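chain below, 149 aa
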Amino acid sequence: MTKTTSLPEFATNARGLETGATLIVGLVLLLVLTVVGVSGMNTATMEITMAANTQFQQDAFQQAEDGIDIMIANRMYHPDDDRTLDLLGDPDYDRTAVSTPRDSVSNAFGSSVGEIRAFHWEIVSVGRGPRNAVSTHNQGFYTEGRATN
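prediction:
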C-alpha cells in the first residue's frame, strides 16, 4: 500500500488568488523613486544656478573695485573737469569709472593760510559681470596741493 499525500486546499487554489498586488506595489514604489529623483535633480540645478549668480555678482564687484583702483593709481582726476575710465568692450566683464572734483578747502591740514588746499574727489565706478550682474561703488578721497589763486 502506497501512501499518497494530498496537497492542502489553499495550495491548489493559490493560482486563483493571485491578483497582481505585487506588480501594483512595485509600480507605486518606482513612481515614488522617480519623483524623488526628479526633485533632487531640480534642486541640484537650482543650487548650481544660485552659486553661479553669486560668482557673477562677485565678478561685477571686483570689476567696480578695479575701476576705482585704476583711477587712483593713474591719477585720473583733475580739479577742473571730470575724467572717465573707458570701457573694456567685453560684454561679460567690463567696468567704467568717472572722477568728479567736489570742492577744495584752504588752510587744510593746519597749513599756512592760502598755501595748501585739500581737494575733495569722488569716483563712481560701475562693474559688470555675466548674466547682467552689476555693482556700483562710490569712493571719496582727498588730495593736497598748492593753491592756485
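The first strand starts at residue 83 and ends at 85. The beta strands are 83-85, 94-106, 116-129, 133-146.
thats it, cya
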